[in-house]
Design a protein that fits this description.
mainly alpha; ABC transporter involved in vitamin B12 uptake, BtuC; 74% helix
Length: 343
């Protein structure tokens, strides 16, 4: 009786192995950015000018900040579909408080009061989401979908669908169009928000708990991590970041609008996933979310310069999101193969 020799695996292609490892490490974003830069630069001579890049970053700063909020929720394995409605409600609340305070106070006081009210409203909305998800164990998709409807309805009820005008001129001058060292204030605020979130997630224990809960809630509980407190932190922080973005957007358009942020849920999820943040939770970096949001801004700016209809922009955003989800799944499967030494 002769023993059968085990089959010997053929040699792996070094180029395929290198490409697979690179894709697992950096994701699909660099390829998409390169394609976007080449395409839009060929369609418009103004695309790569310093003025246009600065303008695009300033206009996209509120999406970057909102994406950071979506990112921290995605890390826990959840979604926040209410982020657009929170943006609208904060815009309305900020504007109404500012206008009311401006009648009896200085512009500075009115602006500060308005911002404080907006921040409280945003974090309050995040608290409502957190209590439903963490205390009553409601699925994040269902909970935030329900609160999105409620918050949007509340914003419309407060304004009767009419924009809130009469905000202090200083509000837009300071936060909408002002510059520090030649760079727009909204860009600085977005950068500070990103650094602050990086510090929270990387250098603090509650931040590491967010990753743990997203990776494996059961293992996190066995390790003594409070899932309730972690989810509370994540959703309240997401509400606060949405509020910051809403205040900046309100300063830019100089009115409080009840219909702001309708496309933000799609944009922020797309930005995070394109950046390589996992939809299954527990994986992703702040820089990934920021670069994904910047890419969304690049696409929007490039299509505007090319005079492409806004309806087509919605189609492109949806297509990019679908591509990013497919890439996320492929990346996960490749990661298993790479770490197992099969690629």
């Amino acid at each position: 009786m002769t023993a059968t020799s085990p089959a010997v695996a053929g040699p792996r292609n070094p180029m395929i192995s290198l490409a697979a490892r690179g894709f697992v490490k950096i994701g699909v974003l660099p390829v998409l950015v390169l394609v976007a830069l080449v395409v839009f630069a060929s369609m418009s001579d103004n695309f790569l000018t310093v003025e246009n890049i600065h303008s695009a970053l300033r206009q996209n700063s509120y999406i970057v900040i909102a994406t950071l909020g979506q990112f921290i929720v995605l890390l826990t394995g959840g979604f926040d579909l209410s982020i657009g409605a929170v943006t609208a409600l904060v815009s309305v609340s900020t504007a109404m408080a500012m206008v009311a305070q401006a009648e009896t106070s200085s512009p500075l006081t009115a602006v500060l009061v308005g911002i404080a009210v907006g921040m409280l409203v945003g974090m309050g909305c995040g608290l409502v989401n957190a209590l439903g998800i963490a205390s009553m164990n409601i699925n994040p998709f269902i909970m935030t979908l329900a609160t999105a409807s409620a918050f949007s309805g509340l914003a419309l009820m407060l304004t009767s669908g009419v924009p809130v005008s009469g905000l202090p001129v200083e509000f837009s001058d300071w936060l909408g169009f002002n510059q520090i060292l030649g760079i727009g204030v909204p860009i600085w605020i977005a950068a500070l928000a990103a650094v602050g979130l990086w510090v929270l997630l990387t250098l603090t224990r509650p931040g590491r708990h967010i990753y743990s809960v997203g990776s494996s809630p059961k293992a996190a509980r066995l390790s003594g991590i409070s899932e309730f407190r972690t989810l509370l932190l994540a959703y309240v922080a997401a509400g606060g970041l949405a509020a910051i973005g809403s205040v900046l957007l309100t300063a830019r358009i100089e009115t409080g609008e009840a219909n702001l942020g309708a496309s933000l849920p799609l944009q922020t999820i797309a930005a995070a996933v394109i950046g390589g943040v996992s939809l299954r939770g527990g994986s992703g970096r702040v820089i990934d979310a920021v670069l994904g949001a910047v890419f969304i801004g690049i696409v929007a700016n490039g299509m505007n310069l090319a005079q492409i209809n806004s309806y087509y922009q919605m189609i492109v955003t949806g297509a990019v999101l679908a591509l990013a989800v497919v890439a996320d799944r492929l990346r996960s499967r490749l990661a298993v193969a790479v770490y197992a030494g099969k690629v």
